[in-house]
Amino acid sequence: MTGRRFRLVADDYGLSPGVSEGIRQLLDRGRLSGTGCMTLFPEWAESARAMRDLSPNAEIGLHLTLTDFGGLSGWGHLPHLKELITGVSRGAITADKVFPELDAQLDRFTAEFGRLPAYLDGHQHVHFLAPVRQWIIARFAHLPDAEKPWVRGGPTRKGAPAGLWPKILFIRGLATGFDRQMRAAGLPVKGPLAGFYAWQKPGLFAEAMTTLVRCLPDGAVVMCHPGLVDDALRARDVLTDSRAEELEFLAGDRFAALLDRAGATLAGRAA
Questions:
Q1: Rounded CA gap, 261 and 259, in Å?
Q2: Contact by Cβ (8 Å): 181, 153
Q3: Is residue 271 assigned to a domain?
Q4: H or E stretch at 23
Q5: How far apart, in Å, are the Cα atoms of 162 and each of 159, 167, 168, 169?
Q6: Where residue 269 falls among pLDDT bands split at 50, 70, 90?
Q7: Where does this protein have coiled-coil stretches (predicted)?
Q8: Dihedral over Cα of 250, 256, 258, 263: its sign
């Protein structure tokens, strides 16, 4: 199959200065469609300013974050994912808690970029949770079509190793009805989502990307997590060395040759 276009988006811009620098390097080389921003860290304003004049065709999105880090809204330290899911399912974490936090993250994005994000997704896929769905619809469904961000849809198992299928099926469960609900609200949905691989094991990213590029349907969204490893990253996240591995592969000639052999191109804002 030739002529396929897919989005390759880097999660976690803003997580640390090194992660942000690595993502900017790839955007500058045209190796990414865009990136999703985490706006709740102290370095956010500096990272955003470094991005503003870079890659005008890149899609700069908001990576909604409700887990593990210090929030912006007085919530305090955000819960672990299991606690968040349990709290939502039991009615202990509701819209009145979630909306102020996501509003604060959105406000920090617009304060630096002077516009709304090109797309929305969630760190650890939290955008599939009911209060976040409500927030997305409340904040964006009323906008003119030209101003609406697209939202990242549910995942596919296609191209993923069988050992990760249980994780993907769990995320698909969280995403039940999401694509349909967003479209019913007039919001564009892009997907399916791919990019799952066993990042804990070194040396697997190139193989995973090779499989994905060969089998993905037209219009798919592939997440990745490249970046330079710095002290801030090591203090904030367990996903470290694999980011450097992803950055090296995506920046190199092997990735460009892979796209060429597969007849695939990266979609983005200009698409």
A1: 6
A2: no
A3: no
A4: helix 17-28
A5: 9, 10, 10, 11
A6: low
A7: none
A8: positive
